[in-house]
Design a protein that fits this description.
The chain has 470 residues and is of the alpha+beta class. Helix content is 32%, strand content 25%. The longest helix is centred in the middle third of the chain and has 15 residues. The chain is elongated and about 70 Å long. Bound molecules: iron/sulfur cluster. The site of iron/sulfur cluster has 12 residues, from helix 18.
């Protein structure tokens, strides 16, 4: 993953288990498979039927949890979270799951996404006397649920969900029940699986494979599952509307071995590369992809164009964890540490360099330079998604508009800035077709707002990009 140097970061990943004696260990492994979705912090909450227990901390999964800690998290059900800090700040109190205790029992919450009306709701709650402990938008949901405490818990949760707007995949857990909810447009991915008689829930299906679980189905937009020792129930808290799943899950975020909404990510990326080759052909000797997320699209481009795919760029797998690097200079150093051009492959060649996206342009410029320094005669950059011109309000850090190269420059200017011999992007139609392959149904078509500016939900006047809030 080059997210931390590209300026393109998924906010979170969530994983839950109900009905397994080793639920905390399974959640640990599940979160490990979702580590690419957040590296800043992680947490697990477990229930043994009588008490909720929490362990969380800053860092990668294996830095946060020791064996002893996991053994202390005894219980038959767990929810877990990996976090990239955008909404709110990176403080310990914002690491999820958030756990609230009251006389009537505990409530744990893990959230993937971003609420566009969180600020308005915070103002309202504080005006009514609530004291918020975190700067995270997720806490708002706990307060809304508590405010509806006169209702049965299921109803209090659906009441709270009806008040929030934006993108959310939620795992909530009390001592004796787990609630799994997807927003009415299903912007973030969320799947259900089973492991023997246990239920598992994950942001991505790759985590099911790691723990040996079998995929069951997607959590539908506007659906909430209630899981307990008595079984599983499905509640609709919103009328079905067209799903607008985040297209960037296919382009970049999800792991290639995941199936998102039933479609394999690697296969989707290959189709993006193939369509890109048809839309933007070029006379070249080799095709290479920027590891890891662009390899699938590069293979697709090579297959469709008949130009051989080669490993012109390799990733140094043993570079330690690099934190979000604040300055451009440091970001550029990060690229150098992580990637190398293979001189023996690219020297004297006309190279097609396929990348999944361009955010600030600094990464592309570095890689083009690296290929030329390794002797490439020409470097033609082909991007397997449309230009990112708009910020995301739904939980992805696509940087603010001022930093997005495509929001501020023409194609020719971008080509010059990154030093490419030519530059072309996949069209929005090409991306849609590559993902959905002409599917005609209610589920057809994903969110493409960062490319088109057509946001699938209302954007409130005070909605800020999470990156700007931090
Ligand atoms: S705006 Fe872009 S990154 Fe955000 S949800 Fe939509 S497609 Fe995904």
């Amino acid at each position: 993953m080059l997210g931390e140097i590209k300026g393109l970061n998924e906010e979170c990943g969530i994983f839950g288990v109900w009905g397994h004696p080793d639920s905390a260990q399974l959640t640990y492994y599940g979160l490990h498979a979702l580590q690419h979705r957040g590296q800043e912090g992680a947490g697990i909450v477990t229930t043994d039927g009588g008490q909720l227990k929490l362990a969380k901390g800053h860092g990668l999964i294996n830095e946060v949890f020791s064996e002893n800690q996991l053994e202390d998290l005894q219980g038959h059900a767990s929810i877990g979270h990996v976090r990239y800090a955008t909404a709110g700040d990176g403080g310990y109190e914002n690491i999820q799951p958030l756990l609230f205790r009251s006389q009537t029992g505990g409530l744990a919450l893990a959230h993937n996404g971003n609420l566009v009306n969180a600020q308005a709701l915070k103002n309202q709650l504080e005006g009514q006397g609530s004291i918020l402990q975190t700067t995270s938008d997720t806490e708002v949901v706990a307060h809304l649920i508590k405010r509806a405490r006169h209702l049965p818990l299921e109803q209090a949760i659906t009441e709270a969900l009806s008040m929030i707007k934006g993108a959310y995949a939620f795992l909530l857990m009390t001592e004796d029940r787990m609630f799994v909810a997807n927003d009415p447009r299903g912007l973030r991915p969320l799947s259900l699986g089973h492991l023997g008689g246990s239920w598992v829930v994950s942001s991505e299906t790759c985590a099911f494979d790691i723990v040996g679980a079998t995929y069951e189905r997607e959590i539908d937009p506007g659906e909430m599952l209630v899981i307990s020792d008595d079984g599983i129930d499905s509640i609709r808290f919103s009328a079905p509307i067209q799903r607008t799943l985040c297209s960037m899950e296919y382009v970049y975020f999800s792991r290639p071995d995941s199936n998102v909404d039933g479609k394999n990510v690697h296969a989707s990326r290959k189709r993006m590369g193939k369509t890109l080759a048809e839309e933007a052909p070029v006379d070249a000797d080799v095709v290479t992809g920027v590891p890891d997320s662009s390899i699938s699209a590069a293979i697709g481009y090579a297959e469709a164009s008949g130009i051989p795919y080669e490993l012109g760029l390799i990733k140094n797998r043993y570079v330690g964890r690099t934190f979000i690097q604040p300055s451009q200079e440091l970001r550029e150093q990060g690229v150098k540490m992580k990637l190398s051009a293979v001189r023996g492959i690219v020297e004297g060649k006309k190279v097609v360099m396929v990348d999944d996206s361009i955010v600030r342009g600094t990464t592309s410029r570095r890689i083009v330079k690296m290929l030329k320094e390794a002797g490439a005669a020409e470097v033609h950059v082909r991007i397997a998604s449309p230009p990112i011109k708009n910020p995301c309000y739904y939980g992805i850090d696509t940087s603010n508009s001022g930093e997005l190269i495509a929001a501020n420059h023409s194609l020719q200017e971008m080509e010059e800035q990154i030093g490419a011999d030519s530059l072309a992007f996949l069209s929005t139609e090409g991306l849609n077709e590559s993902i959905y392959q002409g599917e005609e149904s209610l589920r057809h078509g994903g969110c493409m707002a960062c490319f088109t500016g057509n946001y699938p939900t209302e954007i409130y006047p005070n909605t800020m990009h999470p990156y700007e809030k931090a």
